[in-house]
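To close the chapter, one final illustration. This time we ask the reader to focus less on the individual chains and more on the assembly as a whole: which components sit near each other, and how the overall shape emerges from the parts.
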Amino acid sequence: MKFARDTWLIFQRQTQLLLRNPVWVFVGVFQPVMYLLLFAPLLKPALNAPTQAAAYKIFVPGLLVLLAIFGGLFQGFGLIAELRAGVIERSRVTPISRLALLLGRSLRDVVSLIVQAVIITLLALLFDLRVFLGDLLLAYLMLALIALMTSAVSYGVALKVKSEDALAPLMNTVAQPVLLLSGILLPLTFAPGWLQGIADWNPFSWAVDGTRALFAGDLGSDKVWQGLSITAVLAALGVYWAARQFARSVR
Amino acid sequence: MIETRGLRKSFRSRAGRETKTVDAVRGVNLEVAEGEIFGFLGPNGAGKTTTLRMLATLIEPDGGDATIAGADLRKDPAEVRRRIGYVPQGGSTWDESTAREELVLHARMYGIGKADAQRRAARALDAFQLTEYADRKCKTYSGGQRRRVEIALGIIHEPKIVFLDEPTTGLDPQSRAHMWDEIRRLRADGMTVFITTHYLDEADALCDRIAIMDNGELVAEGTPAELKREISGDVVLVGIDLTATEQATKALDGEPYVNKLETADEGGLRLYVDDGATAIPQVLRRLDHAGLELRSIELHRPSLDDVFLTKTGRSLRES
Ligand SMILES: Nc1ncnc2c1ncn2[C@@H]1O[C@H](COP(=O)(O)OP(=O)(O)OP(=O)(O)O)[C@@H](O)[C@H]1O
Ligand SMILES: [Mg+2]
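The assembled structure is written out below.
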């Protein structure tokens, strides 16, 4: 009870501050729309898809996972600013739950990601994308788990390194191979065997496959439950680790 | 109210390739009584903030333990948190929120309900004369206004003890005097106040008791008056002509009330006495008797700086 209340308190505060910043709101909405409008037209020929709608079924899930990963990974920067302002230290002297300090923030990130995802989905509907509501909701769950994990890890790392200068290269180094080896932008079906072998070890590759299966309406596919379980386990581990950083961080 | 036993903390820090260990706090034993303003005085890097952060449950001590407002620091840090307030040295407000929002949020982090939190925030804003700026973003505040918000944050849940880390650093003399009044008001409300400072006059004027910290250790503890008395008594400066110095030395050396006698560089004598007020008439009489002419006589009360000097061999002002 106390934990839920604490989490809600932090979530509210963080959301309020986010909405107060019009630039951020603009960027958060504008960016994915740009991807959809400017990048997507290249897809049909590139993917050799029979129709524009078929191309979207492959591209949109990839784009959403991409946003979930990146939206999460760079949240740590905001936390470093809070750390510097003394806000984290001030929170840590109160009896508020340490897990709530993390989850309240991560949930804000998850919610803002889902809002972006809904906007993109609605736009894609205009381009003839069709997906069952049930499948879509499961896909959103997958996205939420990914964002939860990446934002938690980003917060945890931010508390450990405590400086933007260290966080930026670190997150970029993580993000790059993850991105290239997950088949996010283009599916790995055409990749040579060794590349696919490596990609099998990339959890995000499983997440992308699962999300694509859901958008394809293939609910029964193994990829769905595999993707969901892997992201759920990783999200739980990420949250656990990052909450420990909140409990013990120094300065 | 606070009792610490052998509190220790070292930090490992990397300087280039080698790691160095800094013993920031090396075994601190302290007792702070209920309802007093306790001052922690020491130069930069003495370990004041580190001690406070340990007492506020922010970092775990390497050794020793402490009881704070009846709760055990190691066994029950959650209970300690409920009973204390802490105002960090480096600030604690967020640029983009307003003082009122910060106060309400902070109260609610202590589990206080929304309506009550709003009432408390309004009361605190009033008490710290912040109502006028209450709904402006914190980044628009002056240093003094911001410091007042931070102190209001530290006491919004009415803790038994509040730790204030350098509450007056960076304030102009007038704001500093205001801040002293506010701190005294906390004491009047029954709070125990633990403050750190570099300022000797502040420790002297504001604190009921002080501890002097240097290099991770306590070097002295007591009321300001006690400390000054214990260390050096008073100093009487006797101004006489250079030619008469020798005669005067002969006349005064060995007088029962003179603890120590030194020739001052600028001529004249420095007498260390227990109580300057009673010594001065005797000095005057003795010199008169010896037929020596006095140019001036001055009484110096020892300052906390003298205390620091005697205990550490350095002046606090220089370090
Ligand atoms: N997180 C840390 N990592 C490494 N060293 C630290 C850390 N925190 C403090 N120190 C070192 O411990 C010593 C004591 O620092 P502390 O901040 O407690 O001093 P202080 O008495 O508060 O000084 P000031 O008056 O400047 O605030 C210093 O030498 C400082 O460099
Ligand atoms: Mg300090």
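Chain A has a mean pLDDT of 86. The interface with chain B takes residues 2, 5-6, 9, 13, 17, 20-21, 82, 85-87, 89-96, 248, 250 of chain A (CB under 8 Å). With these observations in hand, you are ready for the problems at the end of the chapter.
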